[in-house]
Amino acid sequence: MLGLLVEEGSVPGELQNAHAELRQSGVIDAEDKIVTDLYPLVSTLMEPRIIVRVEVTSPQGVTNSGAVVGDEFIFTHESWPGSHESEYVPAEPETLVWALARTVDLHRDFTTGSDTGETIVSIMGRVDAVIERMETGTSEEPAAIAEATGAPVRLTEVLAQLNCMWRMTVVWKGDGAARTESGLAVSALAVWDCGLEGYWLRELPAEPVTEGQVDASSELRVRHVSAKELWQMITDLLPDGAQLATA
Q: Which of 3, 207, 221, 239 is deepest in the core (most CB within 10 A)?
């Protein structure tokens, strides 16, 4: 709705309620002028340089959060499971990685061992089968689940401690190896937060994954990584100045 007002477009019928709510809340005046305090957010949303999307899937549902980076301002945003509303908060460049790490609850490792680099290989269909069996509520040992689903025992042990799965995707306009056919550059990573079993980076299927690219037979490879490694990976997802240079 704010975008339409900035572009001085007509208000379609399905957005009349949103239009009225903006007036009632004082975000816009009687002449549809946006209050000055919202200029930083609206200008950033209208012409973003970088968009970060974070999708977290947990037993509580799916939450979407992320960040929008403009020429002058940066905003992070978060939502609650099942909510269509997000809370936008201004951020500084030096705090962006910290803010993104917080959205996925990146914390100090509490793993029982220090064997980072351990790799588990299987197929995606086995992951779905293991999770479905665990969600039945039947208390089974990982070895029994592995036998029933054909999954590696180590995979069932790790998934038994699963807190959530999250994906972080960064999109920007610019050149570089990450540039796609659409002219946008994309970088992404997918992680399993498995509590006492630590963090597992999904190396295959490799992110970014497009719709229809992955099926039950797709190869799965996850690697145990430390929180420190993930912090650096999040930092590396963000483009540098040279990558942001547009044609």
A: 239
